[in-house]
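Encode chain A's predicted structure.
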Amino acid sequence: MVNRPAFTRKTRRSSAQGAGAAWHRRRTRATVDTQGHRNIDPADQWVLDPETGSYVLRIDPEQPPSPSVSAQGGRRERREQQGTRSTPSNPSDAPNRASRRKGKPRKSRKKKALVWTAATVGFVLVAGSIGGYLVYQHFNNNITTVDVGDAGNKNVTADGPVNILVIGTDSREGLGKEYGDAGSVGHADTTILFHVSKDRTNATALSIPRDLITDIPDCPTKQKDGSTKVIAGEQKVRFNTSLGQEGRDPGCTMRAVKALTGVSVDHFMMANFTAVKDLSTAVGGVDICLAKPIKDPKSHLDLGKGHHKVSGDDALAFVRTRHAVGFGGDLDRIKLQQQFLGSMIRQMKSGDTLTSPSKLWKLANAATKALTVDSAIGSISKLSDLAKDLSAVDTKNITFATVPVIDNPADGKVHKTVILDPTKAQQVFSMVKSDISLTAVAKKPGTPDASKAPDKLSGSKAPASQVRVKVFNGSGVTGAAQDTINWLQNNKAVNRSTNGGNAPAGTAATTTLVYAPNQADQARALAAMMGLPASALQPGTVDAAAKANMTLTLGKDFKGAGTPIAAPTSAPEGIQKVVADDKSVCAK
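Encoded structure for chain A:
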């Protein structure tokens, strides 16, 4: 029997009653109509204030307080995985009352935050959710939190890049037998590392295949009684077992991602299948495109070629299907999810959604009910702060990509799992760690253009067959020189490379390439192959003999044969990626 932390669930009152109680603490005398009273929908009582870009509550000032809502009647505890009681959020989390003065409409930071928050809902739809317009005190009680210990960041935002792990669990809880095993513990069915750059100009959404073979590290998890249990790690297992298996919580998935990519994760957001159904319905459907008909008896998806708008069960079937597209594997399903998420982001930023209080109410209610986050961002105010911090990213600069992988040779002829592409995966991870976008992004005015190649790396490159180099090992890693030579000869056709043994000066702090002026084209070629930065190139002043070798000394910054020492400035050729605002994507 699987041991796992238990969720404490509180009885839900109606959304209208919860909303009324939430606003009872306000200094105004107005309260929200209960559903059906005077046939007013609570969502219709929220209107957009053009001065602030915020939605505020509009109520007849002569209406007396509703007798059906007491001061304590709507106060609920937020669900928390540890089973401990949360302190009720400060009433200041709620939006201020609308100003009655008319003003000139203007864009504000709050409105940008609204747009970004809505866009974030679209992104996390399949694999977790930040919620709709997260300023309603009413929705605070919907959120479930998990204490992940030191796996994440205790601060909501950071001065540097922000990394959010978005998890879609395949738990069938509450969905009925038609969705599979209702008792499933839920694994990491969809996992996306969402990296937002330090300058907030771009973001990379990196999908991690669930069938990727990797190592899962030991993981301390908080139990319901407040104790900590360390769940032993495993080697060479599917990535999706980082959640649910043996009682692993989302913090374990965060640790597994750091071990895999080298990227430290700040926060996580997680949701199950319900989020896909409810949120796609709340926004009025999501536009998708099919290059060919899809008829999948397993997901019950039956759609013709062309454009469609899907919601509810059809939306869930679309992001879950894999047998009817491509080669029928998880990698093809990831492409469908990326198309869906990009379309959802565009839908969220459309005026049809942002100007509809009813849609925003339904969206926020559905999203927060489906939402599980780490305790550091486990309130409406904290999620709003996070959304505002990330509000500057334009959808044209959000790149969806998949971790580069290859078929697992251990599977034989029937391919069931994948392993990291030994060269391309590390290049992508290096770009994320170095805060480099996978697509070209216009820099903010006054920002130095780091993409311009230094002089030592500019110019013609010699063919691999003409590159002569002797490799010395100063890295402190046994066999590093020979491993590099094997990689150069077998992968790059640099057959005129030789092993110089250990570096004469011993361990070197950094990798260096010493060459003569007449070997500059060879040096540039080798630097491009190995991902050497310009600082590693050390040109001499005297030309070398025709068959002389350059000298490459591996330093402590050596990361392994084929792994760039400096992060690439552009994505590796052939990796799967798509930009969020690309409307031309059709599932094949």
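The chain has twelve helices and 26 strands.
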